[in-house]
Each structure stands twice: as structure tokens, then as C-alpha cells.
Amino acid sequence: MQIAQYLCALIIFASALFTSYRNEKSVSPTLNNAKHGAVIRHQLYTEILDVQYADADGNDNLLDAYLPDDRNSNTKVIVYIHGGSWVQGDKREFPKALIEELVGKRKYALASLNYRLVKDRKNTFPAQIEDVKKALAFIAANAAEYRYDGNHFALIGASAGAHLAMLYAYGYDSLKQVKTVVDIFGPTDLSDETVRQPGSESNAIIVNFLGTSDTAAKIVKEASPYFQLTGSTAVPTIIFHGTADEMVHVNQSEKLYKKLQDLGVPSQIKLYPGEKHELRPPVAADVFAAMIAWLEQYYP
């Protein structure tokens, strides 16, 4: 993929203002094991929209699946978890250009998830981790029929989605299915003063997510990837963060990276001087290129 195409893809991806245009021909659904929406045939892959993986109301437990044509039982699965402060965002945010690259060209299977969002003090943590677990179990259960490897996953997340990806991998993956994590400016320690300053937006978001303002509460460590990370739970992790991030302080990534290194876990951090909680086009291109190289090394 040329650098201009990288830029086009990640202008949207890194700013969390994704849009995806689907004008290919829609065909009649053929899946039997799940409720779902349209099935769209592309040149090199098939897109299955709004697959229901669990029974939460509305769109909360839906995923979009992208299956390459030349797949088999060894085809690896990537799962994307969207951001949005645990209160907003949608699976459709994953841009089509990245789908074309990962699924159409590199032959990964891809799922992009919705999960329960916090609203009116409902669906506070751990609802989101429960949904990630249900989604991965659903994907695994359908592996034989739809021809991909349902025993291994790479998790990619941005912001709150990166938090959930890391947290699940380090703390809740009892089956050891997650093989690598791509973390794009995700919070890692929900007790840390850099994100818990009274009156700050980040503190208000975390209080809303956890349902408590007590930074010493047990749930805070249960919801923090940093504290769930151990030598026995760690997986290779690549981290991207802007040094001027006003929402998730860069210290969140730096301390996680240090712990990964101290544990001897394959890990990489890429810091972008002056970047905030979104990445401008030149940096976005670098994020995408580094992400692809990481996947090729640790999740080929």
C-alpha cells in the first residue's frame, strides 16, 4: 500500500471520526447460526454486518465480520474494539481502507465489536469485559463452519477500546487465546493521579465507567490493565501515544511499557512529540505501518 493510501486510511482512524462507505452489491444472507444484517460481497472478501453475538438490547452485542476469500482453518482473526470513553462509539468506525489491507490483501479475518456502553449509571464495569469475552467465544464457536482459526486472536483498540483490549488480554483471557495487543493511547492505570485529577474530564469519565470515585476501591485495580499484567498473563504489545495527550496522559503508556520490559515481554512503544488524543496524518501513517509490521512479526 502506498503512503498516500496509509494517510487516507488513518486520517479517519486516528482521529476517531471514522466513516466507511459501502456501495458494493448486497446479496441474500446465507448464515444459519446467528442473526445478522446484510451480507456484502467484495472483490476479495465477504462482509457480514450486524451479527448478534449475545443478547443485550439494541446494537450493543453486534459485530461486523470480514472474511477473506482464500481462508482456511489457519486463517488468523483480528478483533477491533472501538473507543469513545466507554459511553459512545460504534463498530463501524473501523475504516474500509484498513479492512481492504488487513482482510483483502493480508488475508486476516476481522471482527469489529460493539459492546454495552455506560448510560444513566447502567452498564458500568465489568459489563464491557463480559461482552468482549462473549464475542470471542462466539467467534470461536463458529470457526469450523466459516473456516478460520478460532483459537487465537489479536486485539486492536483505540482509547477506551485499547483499554478493554489490554485488560481482557492481561486479566480475563483464561483460555490464553489472545496472542498480541495493539494499544493506541489506551488508559492503563485507572488509579493514577495523571488521569484522576479532581475536576478533570478524564477523572469524570473514569468515575462514570467504574461507578465509584474511590481511587482505592478494589474495582479500580480490577479494571486497570497495569495491575492485571503479570509475567504469566502478558502478551506481546505495541503501544502508540502522543506526548501531549490531554485525555490520557502519556505516563499511562510509559509505565505500562516499563512493566512489560521489566517482565521480559516483547513490546514496543512509539511516542509522538506534541500529539494529542488524536493523531495527525503523518503520524497516522506511521502508526499504520508500524502496526502492520508488528502483526507480521507476532501474529503472521
Describe this structure in words.
The protein has 300 residues and is α/β, with parallel strands linked by helices. Helix 1 crosses helix 10 and helix 3 packs across helix 5. It is built from 10 helices and 10 strands. Strand 9, helix 9 and strand 10 form a beta-alpha-beta unit. The protein has a 10-stranded mixed beta sheet, with helices on both faces.
What order do the SSEs take from the amino end to the carboxyl end, as H and E? HEEEEEHEHHEHEHHHEHEH
What amount of the residues lies in strands? 15-25%
Anisotropy-based shape? globular
Helix tally? Answer: 10
Main-sheet strand order equals 1-2-3-4-6-5-7-8-9-10
Count the E strands: 10
Q: What structural class results from the helix and strand content?
A: alpha/beta
Largest sheet: 10 strands, mixed
Q: What is the radius of gyration?
A: 18 Å
Mean pLDDT: 90
In helices, the fraction of residues equals 25-40%
Task: Detail the poorly predicted runs.
Answer: 1-31
Short structural description:
Helices cover 35% and strands 18% of the residues. By secondary structure, it is of the alpha/beta class.
